[in-house]
Amino acid sequence: MIVVLAGGVGGARFLQGVVQVVPPAEVTAIVNTGDDRQFYGLHVSPDIDIVIYTLAGVVDERHGWGIRDDTYHVMQQLTRYGHEDWFLLGDRDLATHIHRTLRLRQGRTPSEVTDELRRLFGLTVRILPMSDEPVATHIQTPAGLLHFQEYMVKRRCADEVQGVVFVGIEQARPAPGVLEALRQAEAVLLAPSNPIVSIGSILALPGVRETLQATSATVAAISPIVGGAPLKGPADKLMRGLGYEVSALGVARCYADFLDVMVIDQQDAALAPAIEALGPRVLVTDTIMRDNEAKIHLAREVLHSCARAV
Description:
Helix content: 40-55%
């Protein structure tokens, strides 16, 4: 079994490659839910939905989120009623959030709802939310503590990052199957997702980092930082705000206590000796997922590297 820790567009696109190299039924994705938030009374789970939509082949590729060719009639009407529209949700996307919210109110857990959605979209890959308890990623800024969606989408990452807080993390537990998957995996892959929030929220759950330290699986991470900058999203501002160097080396330092293989782009080959000094072996390859062929190539290279590390 291959386990992938994922969040956001980078995680979903990497999973697209993995399920074309490994039979999807042998893949488990553990997905960040720290970005979840209530919008218009609905429970929205952005990273879960990005993963499902992407693997189902219905995602809006221009954005990396939402459903392709969706319409926005509901949002247009909501704005006429005076509601904010900074978090744009398409009509078919809203159906997903309505369905999730109804199921949760009926007493289903997030894990159960996620599995139902996975099956409704025809996927055989196993998808686990990181926790069934609420965890909310907040960014500490001079303007106060902002929910990550407000920081990133509404305020467009304009605020200085002074810290990151995972509200509710002390009371939360990994969702059923998460720790078992990490223990039983042949390889655990940390997708090229934001190391501070997308992956960081998963690692902050009680027992996850300790399980990764103890697992017999090969643990590999792909850097989302290429040439000193993120390919997408605010990872640079978050890393800098927490005192990490914005580089593949900085990403390796986030994971150094459990990492076996660090995968970096060819542009960052000069960083390999410094990363290897931390402990992990380094794989230098093309990590930019420009098209489907590149996604498959990256997944195959990472899995081959894990096999060689055994």
